[in-house]
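During the reporting period the student researcher (J.K.) took over the structure-prediction task from the postdoctoral fellow and processed the backlog of single-chain submissions. One of the processed entries is reproduced below for the supervisory committee.
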Amino acid sequence: MSEPLLCAIHHVALICSDYPRSKAFYSETLGLRIVREVYRDTRASWKCDLEVSPGVQLELFSFPDPPPRPSRPEAQGLRHLAFAVPNVEAVVKILQQRGVACEPIRVDEYTDRRFTFFADPDGLPIELYES
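J.K. obtained the following C-alpha cells:
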C-alpha cells in the first residue's frame, strides 16, 4: 500500500445565516480563539478563522442570501462536526450553563467512548466525542 496523500485536516468551512450570531457562538460559547477576521468587499462576505487546536481551524463565512442547508439528517454532504473533548459530561455542563441544549450522553458501541450532540445557531449538528 502506498503512503497516504493526506496528513491532517487543516480546516472546516461553514457558511452562516447570521454571521455575528455564529461568530459569537463559536468564539464565546464554545471558546474557539479568533485567529483572523476579514471583510471581503468583492464578495460582500466576512471570513473568520477560529483555532480548534494547533494547526486546525474552523472558517466561518457570511454570504448574501445563502440557500438553507438540507434539513434531512441523512442528506448528502457534511453530516456533522465532531470535536474531541477529555470529558463529555464536564463540557455538557458548561454548555448547558451557557444556554446550549445537548442530547443525552450515549456510548459508542464500537469504541466504548462517550459522546453527545448539540446544534449550532444554523442547526448544524455538532458532536462531542470523549478522547
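The committee noted the following: Residues 9-65 form a domain with the 2,3-Dihydroxybiphenyl 1,2-Dioxygenase; domain 1 fold (CATH 3.10.180.10).
J.K. will present the remaining backlog at the next meeting.
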